[in-house]
Amino acid sequence: MKNRSVIASFLAVVSAFALFSAVTIEAGKDDGKRPPDKEAAAMDYGPVMANTFEAPNGNLAVKGVLIKLDKEHEAGVLYDTELCRLACAWVGPNVHLASRVFSNDNNFHCTIDNGVQFATGMTPGWANGEKVDDPRNPKDGPLPHEWAHYKGLYRHGDQIVVSYTVGTAEVLESPGVTFQGSQAIFTRSLRVGPHANPMKLLICAHEKNDQPTDAAKGTFEAPDGKTKTWILPLADGSRQIANLVQAPAGAGYAFEQATNYGPAYVTLPPSAVSVVFGVDIARVSSANATGSQAVPTVEPRDPETLTHGGPSLWKETITTEGKLAADNAPYVIDTLPAPDKNPYHSWIRFTGIDFFPDGHRAALCTWSGDVWIVSGIDHDLKYLTWKRFATGLNNPMGVKIVDGVVHTIDRSQITKLIDLDGDGEADFYQNINNDCTLTTNFHEMAFDLQTDSQGNFYFSKSSAIWAPPIRLAEDAGCVLKVSKDGSTLEKLCTGLRAPNGVSVGPDDKVYCTDNQGNWVPSCPINLVKKDAFYGYAYHDGRPLPPTEREKPLCWIPYGRDKSSGTLVWDMTDQWGPFKGRMIECSYDCSIFAVIEEFVGDQVQGGVTKFQLHFPSGVMRGRFNPADGQLYLAGLRGWSSRAVNDECFQRVRYTGKTIVVPVAVRTLHDAMEVTFNADLDAKSIDSDNIAAEQFNVVRTERYGSPEFSVKNPKKAGHDVVEIKSAKLLADGKTVALEIPGLAPVTNFNLTFKLTAADGSPVEQELDYTINRVP
User: Fold this and answer.
1) pLDDT in tens, 154-166
2) 615 backbone dihedrals φ, ψ, rounded to 5°
3) Residue 685: how many CB atoms within 10 A of its CB?
4) Count of Cβ atoms closer than 10 Å to residue 154 Cβ
5) Model pLDDT, residue 238
6) Per-residue model confidence (pLDDT) at position 99
7) Are 111 and 41 spatial neighbours (Cβ–Cβ below 8 Å)?
8) Number of CB atoms found within 10 A of residue 742's CB
9) Phi, psi dihedrals of residue 695, rounded to the nearest 5°
10) How far is residue 274's CA from residue 515's CA, in Å, rounded to a whole number?
11) Of 78, 206, 288, 540, which has the fewest beta carbons less than 10 angstroms from its beta carbon?
12) How far apart are CA 559 and CA 636, in angstroms?
């Protein structure tokens, strides 16, 4: 991934995520040079958007959920899912693209600039007994689960319920807003499950420049037996008013400062049953703030009634017709057109794909936060029907269907998308695991989503890059494993830069790709070993000493692949001679077959490139359980040869003959390359086989030149002598005598042979030799 192109691409992404809809949230001017993408500006993102947001006074929600409450007045609230707090509420078009995307820290977040009616400090949204301070050190990742834990959100039409636990108590919370003229009254309807100890809910905290004078103190009223009102005069002459509505006996207010101005908490006594109550908060001018009457009581609604599904939002479907390629080659590319023209103006750029068990339906996620379901996948592809299934996810980069249910990975969490009422739309966005740490750096994406034979999840986490001082989150640059039930997160390895693909093999071995850059000389394929280090060496913005990295399966030459994606295993009998092997998908619009070899316990191997080119980057792939063919999905965003914003393709095997290398055996001064079909012995001659080699070198600089092996300080390739070549008795294996064969990062073999049936065999094998017996 080249720096300038990636930054431009991510600017487009941030523009997209800064726009809640064309009306409610407008994009900022970025750096004053580039307007928002028109596709992002037009998109309807739905009632919820997950992203990183910063409100005034440094009020940052790294894993934030923005909830739109009122379109006319452009009012909304922001939840911080790590601290289980309502971070702020605002009125007006005040959410913007963070202009600091070009600043030294490469921040990737949106801002809420003005119109904030109330906010809470960056502390837990509920106390843990009497403890109120953030216990995390550093301040990354969610609170300890025993303190509070985000479980997900329910959608009932455009109404939202946030679900979390506090201690052992289950909590459901539904935000809302009502207007008295132009006066906004924000409401929090809560259902708190049984709890044996008192509880404290943070409702607001005032910053220094917003505090009342020392003489001003909060006052209290109890206009009826069900409502308790807190009124606080503020320094600007306005008043903060909160109504505690239908609270249980013994509930009230508590403050962390003696002046009764905050941080302000609502206290709840122990309860053997669930309690439902409301908190109404408004900031009103002094002229209108004559007591509790300035904020009329809004009766709370039990949030549980909104947790069973509700009105559909995306009722219209889109139909497209596939395009079949002529059967004029062993592998051809069929096209499944995406619903680019849709009533929601959803910007389609695919970042993940998986099939439902029937193979006739698939789920695809998009960079802009959607999940779409496509049905009608058969041989002819004539009637493809697309249904918008979910929206508002935080830059999702992978999808996996488990037991018929869609799961996604995004910057915030693994999410299980559950359709509660069978209307074809997700009603519960369940948090499976959000323990992965995250900073605001734009490059800290979470990539791909896979499972092993036991149902455990795997994904990779990119590193923050480029602009010192870089603060890496603890989990940056890692492959991570999450238990099937979501209860644990385990770090498998470190030192990855941009690992845009993860694979779990049939024997549960884990593999990942990475992308060229600093400390990563070209794109590697890695066999993941527990606690291994894979080369990207930065900490707090400083380059670390060049610690030896675990050797990869192979280094793919820059001229072949600049931006590797996922790895997908062919375990079918319907896709030609690649059963039991990995196919590497490239964001650089191509795919490769992978050869893996073990010399003792050392892995090594290489790739052969398919003579296919795709209209967009193909980051993700799956084999369809119904037809056994390879389906690819991808996008154009950062640097690539793509011409389209997206692609969804089927690579179909026609049954025509193809002869390719399928295995390699490295020997002392020799290599044996096995093909999938018989070869013509007369064509096996060293004149028809060429070899060259070079090394790439890890440095702090971006990428690496290709250095001569004979003269390591000189850029260039060395021609390798092939002393002899012969066909072994199996008729498929070519034995090459290569004097002085030694470990090298890149060993390239070119074959111009003839198959036994007379067809030409022209193949290139890019190989890495880590060990010679």
Assistant:
1) 999 999 999 999 9
2) -75, -10
3) 14
4) 26
5) 82
6) 36
7) no
8) 12
9) -120, 145
10) 51
11) 540
12) 19
Q: CB atoms < 10 A from the CB of 759, how many?
A: 14
Amino acid letter for position 2: K
Sorting pLDDT into bands at 50, 70 and 90, what band is 294? low
Model confidence at 484, pLDDT cuts 50, 70, 90, reads very high
Burial grade of 252 (CB within 10 A; 0-12, 13-18, 19 or more)? middle
Tell me phi and psi for residue 169, to 5 degrees: -85, 130
Helix (H, G, I), strand (E, B) or coil at 38: helix
> What residue type is assigned to position 771 of the chain?
R
Question: What is the dihedral sign for C-alpha 117, 123, 124, 126?
Answer: negative
Cα dihedral value 449, 452, 454, 457, nearest 10: -20
Partners of 187 in the β-ladder: 176, 280
The DSSP call for residue 211 is P
pLDDT: which is higher, 95 or 611: 611
pLDDT of residue 8: 35
pLDDT at 258: 59
Please determine, for residue 312, whether its predicted confidence score (pLDDT) is greater than 80. yes
Tell me the helix, strand and coil percentages in the chain, rounded to 5: 5, 45, 50
Closest by CA position to 634, among listed 338, 318, 377: 338
The residues, any chain, with a CB within 8 Å of residue 401's CB and separated by 6 or more, are 354, 355, 356, 357, 363, 407
What ranges make up the beta strands (E) of 561-639? 564-570, 581-586, 590-599, 602-609, 617-623, 630-635
Chain segment 351-373, per-residue pLDDT in tens: 999 999 999 999 999 999 999 99
* Cα–Cα distance measured from residue 459 to residue 451, given in angstroms and rounded to the nearest whole number: 9
Q: Could you give the 3-state DSSP secondary structure of residue 7? A: helix
User: Cβ distance 154 to 428 under 8 Å?
Assistant: yes
**Do 565 and 592 touch, CB atoms closer than 8 A?**
no
Question: How far is 317 from 386, CA to CA, in rounded Å?
Answer: 6
Whether this prediction's pTM lies above 0.85 is answered by: yes
Residue 419 pLDDT: 98
How confident is the model over 523-565, as pLDDT tens digits?
999 999 999 999 987 655 455 555 789 999 999 999 999 999 9
C-beta of residue 364 within 8 angstroms of C-beta of residue 411: no
**pLDDT category, 289, cuts 50, 70, 90?**
low
User: Which residues, 6+ apart, have CB-to-CB distance to 567 below 8 Å?
Assistant: 501, 502, 503, 511, 512, 513, 525, 582, 583, 584, 585, 594
- Assigned token pair, 45: 């993102």
**Any residues with CB less than 8 A from the CB of 170 and at least 6 apart, and which?**
163, 192, 193, 274
What are the beta bridge partners of residue 679? 755
CA dihedral sign, ordered 122, 124, 125, 127: negative
CA distance 170 to 164: 6
The answer to whether the CB of 108 falls within 8 A of the CB of 441 is yes
List CB contacts of 729: < 8 A, sequence separation 6 or more: none
Instruction: Supply 770's token pair.
Output: 């880590």
Q: What is the DSSP string of 241-306?
A: EEEEESPPTT-EEEESSTTS-SSEEEEE--BSS-EEEEEEEEEE-TTT-SSGGGS-------GGGG
List strand residue ranges (DSSP E) for 393-470, in order: 398-402, 405-409, 414-418, 428-433, 446-451, 457-461
Element (H, E) at 17: helix 3-18
Residue 227 structure tokens: 């409502």
Contact between 93 and 53 under an 8 Å Cβ cutoff? The reply is: no
